[in-house]
């Protein structure tokens, strides 16, 4: 019988002509004894690991011959694990072959993008393979507006465009479509718009089929892909802007993020298992009490996990259950993520009720201590509804915005089951608009408070005293 021990247990001399992994690679080696539970001995294989499971055929990894015409078919293996399932594509290694990513289109030929030239033999590993592709969903952090300590919980990116630069060139451009069922991603054939001097001016139309995720290279030959950069834009970048980003590495570094996309059961367990998830981040950040001297210490581990999301790919299961993005409505809220992560649809009703309760207590002279979750727009609308209606003004139904919304299913439900990953991108334009909207709401609220004060019978006397003081 044969036994299996790890390379750290024994030292042996391989047979002549046999390819074996170096001991530091952690591959099991065979001696006399029983069979091992670890990786099997394989000769001259090329293995590509695609993180997650139940992948569609709309994105495929192709192994092409040296002339680019012959396609070699792989064998597929599905590895089911609690936190890190994956699909392996296995070929007999052939010298001079190249890996490409093929993307299905709505019409015409599929889009083919280069992945790796000069493939090498890759020994099978017990966890993460030497070649790895990670399907990702683009997320953004969505903080509230009440404290600088709110780093935001991850939510799906809104409608716009995702740009992927690979090996210092624009590799993929995808348009994000948002629906009640979640986001889909549609490729633009970059090669069709590329010319020697840059890119063709004008609109670039998406022709790729609707994708549930975006496949990106993470590891080649056991080395991290260092040249992959991502950015989000609410509008399609111009040809001149794309040309500048390709030619100017400094501008590209400022505009893009370069997260570590590699994943493994060990890595995800160390970084995320048992750590605060998106729901915990939302509760901690939105409920942060700056007056509490112990608040910073309590929130420190949550901030640490949140920073890990910023620099690394993360399991989608970490994100809080959420509904589809509604940017116009979100900007009316101090805590938009609390609305998105309320699947019941009761957040508007509860916010308006809390605002009216606050005004009622304030009218009785009762100080309300906890106003962390109080929505300023809801309070402004409730205060406006309590004021007398001018003869020339049209009646305003202030409660329309605060009616209950329909309950929904988590838009990430399918992605959680498939165990794909997320990456956190920057959406600075949204943040600026959100904060500007909150400033405008505060100014409106001040004006309403002044109108409300005029109704007090002693307002004139109080105003005179204030002016004298």
Automatic annotation (TrEMBL):
Organism of derivation: Pseudomonas amygdali pv. ulmi
Alphabetical list of Pfam families matching this protein: VasX_N (PF20249)
Stretches assigned to the Toxin VasX N-terminal region domain: 156-263
Organism domain of life: Bacteria
Name of the molecule in the record: Transposase
Xref: InterPro entries: VasX_N
CDD domains in UniProt: MIX_I
């Amino acid at each position: 019988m044969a036994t299996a021990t790890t390379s750290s247990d024994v030292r042996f001399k391989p047979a002549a002509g046999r390819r074996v992994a170096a001991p530091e690679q952690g591959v099991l080696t065979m001696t006399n004894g029983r069979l091992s539970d670890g990786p099997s001995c394989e000769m001259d294989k090329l293995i590509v690991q695609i993180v997650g499971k139940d992948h569609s055929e709309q994105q495929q990894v192709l192994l092409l011959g040296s002339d680019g015409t012959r396609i070699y078919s792989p064998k597929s293996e599905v590895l089911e694990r609690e936190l890190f399932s994956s699909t392996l594509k296995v070929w007999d290694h052939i010298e001079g072959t190249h890996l490409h990513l093929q993307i299905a289109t709505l019409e015409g030929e599929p889009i083919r993008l280069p992945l790796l030239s000069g493939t090498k033999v890759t020994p099978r590993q017990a966890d993460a393979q030497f070649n790895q592709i990670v399907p990702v969903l683009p997320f953004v952090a969505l903080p509230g507006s009440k404290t600088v300590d709110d780093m935001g919980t991850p939510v799906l990116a809104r409608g716009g465009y995702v740009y992927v630069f690979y090996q210092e060139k624009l590799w993929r451009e995808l348009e994000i479509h948002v629906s009640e069922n979640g986001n889909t991603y549609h490729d633009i054939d970059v090669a069709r718009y590329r010319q020697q001097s840059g890119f063709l001016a004008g609109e670039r139309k998406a022709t790729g089929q609707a994708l549930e995720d975006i496949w990106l290279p993470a590891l080649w030959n056991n080395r991290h892909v260092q040249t992959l950069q991502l950015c989000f834009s609410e509008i399609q970048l111009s040809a001149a802007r794309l040309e500048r980003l390709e030619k100017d590495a400094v501008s590209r570094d400022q505009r893009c993020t370069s997260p570590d996309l590699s994943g493994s059961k060990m890595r995800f367990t160390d970084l995320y298992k048992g750590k605060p998830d998106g729901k915990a981040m939302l509760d901690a950040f939105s409920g942060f009490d700056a007056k509490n001297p112990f608040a910073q210490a309590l929130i420190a581990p949550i901030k640490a996990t949140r920073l890990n999301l910023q620099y690394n790919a993360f399991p989608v299961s970490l994100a809080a259950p959420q509904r589809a993005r509604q940017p116009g409505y979100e900007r009316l809220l101090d805590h938009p993520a609390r609305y998105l992560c309320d699947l019941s649809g009761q957040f508007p009703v509860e916010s308006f009720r809390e605002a009216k309760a606050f005004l009622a207590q304030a009218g009785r002279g009762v100080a309300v201590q906890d106003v962390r979750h109080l929505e300023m727009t809801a309070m402004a609308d409730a205060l406006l509804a309590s004021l007398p209606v001018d003869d020339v003004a049209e009646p305003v139904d202030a409660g329309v915005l605060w009616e209950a919304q329909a309950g929904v299913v988590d838009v990430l439900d399918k992605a959680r089951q498939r165990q794909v990953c997320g990456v956190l991108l920057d959406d600075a334009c949204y943040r600026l608009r959100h904060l500007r909207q909150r400033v405008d709401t505060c100014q409106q609220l001040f004006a309403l408070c002044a109108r409300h004060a005029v109704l007090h019978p002693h307002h004139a006397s109080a105003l005179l005293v204030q002016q004298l003081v």
